[in-house]
Design a protein that fits this description.
One of its GO terms (molecular function) is metal ion binding. By secondary structure, this protein is α+β, with helices and mostly antiparallel strands. It has ten helices and five strands. It has a five-stranded antiparallel sheet. A hairpin with a 5-residue loop joins strand 4 and strand 5. Helix 1 runs parallel beside helix 4, helix 4 runs parallel beside helix 7 and helix 6 packs across helix 7. The termini are close together.
């Protein structure tokens, strides 16, 4: 799916008033729309703004939207430009700031507000109500990711990896949380970020004591020896038995794709046919 198709699918979900609060509460949708606002295609930006405008009609969403990292700043930037996008951005910004706006009736909202993984989308692609065990979450500490340019460079590299389902940035801690299919190797993610030449990545895991441990691998270009083979670091004369299991692999795996539906995996978690054959943009 193209970027435009993805954001258009989310907009169609937001057109149903009973979905709007649930979309904003989902951990992936709002950060995704913030990323879409930085897209170079004005159609993508306008569609993302239209989606935010729909979400802003639900007054209970205003506080969450105001506090979403990067959303207000992006709206301010767009509102200073020319054209329809600037007008829409200004309207959205005004509504979420004032805490006003036309309330939308949401009949039986308490009973209809359900996790996005169970919402059925229009058309042939529908989300299933059960969770697939086909994905896991990887947390990377990215050294050198200090600004939006660095974030975009990381995005570009991750988007080129088949099997990446979604990713969310925490710029304050310079970390990125990535949802990947279970066959994607963490080394591949670190190597991709290393391809930026300005950043490196280490995996964040927890040991048996619950302490964070940084695992470094594949974060810089592979070095070859004189014979053209992968160079290996010096091996110590011995390895203490106690060191053998010093680190444990990732603590848990989180199912995030929809089992039985080839179009069910998705970054925003609510769009049928979202990330089946590629992944989110």
């Amino acid at each position: 799916m193209s970027v435009l198709e993805i954001v258009s699918s989310l907009k169609r979900l937001a057109e149903d008033a009973t979905n709007r609060a649930t979309i904003v509460e989902d951990r992936g949708c709002l950060p995704g729309l913030v990323l879409f606002l930085d897209n170079s295609d004005t159609r993508v930006v306008q569609t993302a703004l239209d989606t935010l405008k729909l979400l802003a009609t639900c007054e209970s969403n205003h506080k969450r939207m105001r506090t979403e990292l990067g959303l207000v700043d992006s709206l301010k930037t767009i509102s200073k430009q020319d054209g329809a996008t600037a007008e829409t951005a200004s309207r959205v910004l005004a509504v979420i700031r004032q805490g006003s706006g036309k309330k939308q009736q949401q009949p039986a909202l308490k009973s209809t507000r359900v996790p996005l993984s169970t919402i059925q989308t229009p058309g042939p692609h529908m989300l299933q109500t059960h969770t697939a065990r086909m994905a896991r979450t990887v947390v990377l500490q990215v050294m050198g990711m200090n600004d939006l340019d660095g974030r975009r460079a990381v995005e570009e590299e991750l988007l080129a990896i088949k099997g990446v389902v979604s990713f969310t940035f925490d710029m304050r801690s310079a970390r990125v949380t990535i949802r990947v299919r279970d066959w994607v190797k963490t080394e591949e993610l670190c190597e991709a970020i290393g391809m930026t030449k300005t950043m490196t990545a280490r995996q964040v895991v927890r040991n048996d004591l619950g302490q964070e441990v940084m695992l470094s691998f594949g974060s810089s270009p592979v070095k070859l020896d004189a014979d053209g083979d992968r160079a290996r670091p010096p091996v110590p004369e011995y390895l203490d038995e106690d060191d053998e299991n010093m680190f444990q692999p990732e603590v848990g795996k989180h199912a995030i794709t929809k089992q039985g539906d080839t179009q069910g995996a998705g970054w925003l978690g609510a769009i049928g046919g979202y990330l089946a054959k590629t992944f989110y943009w």
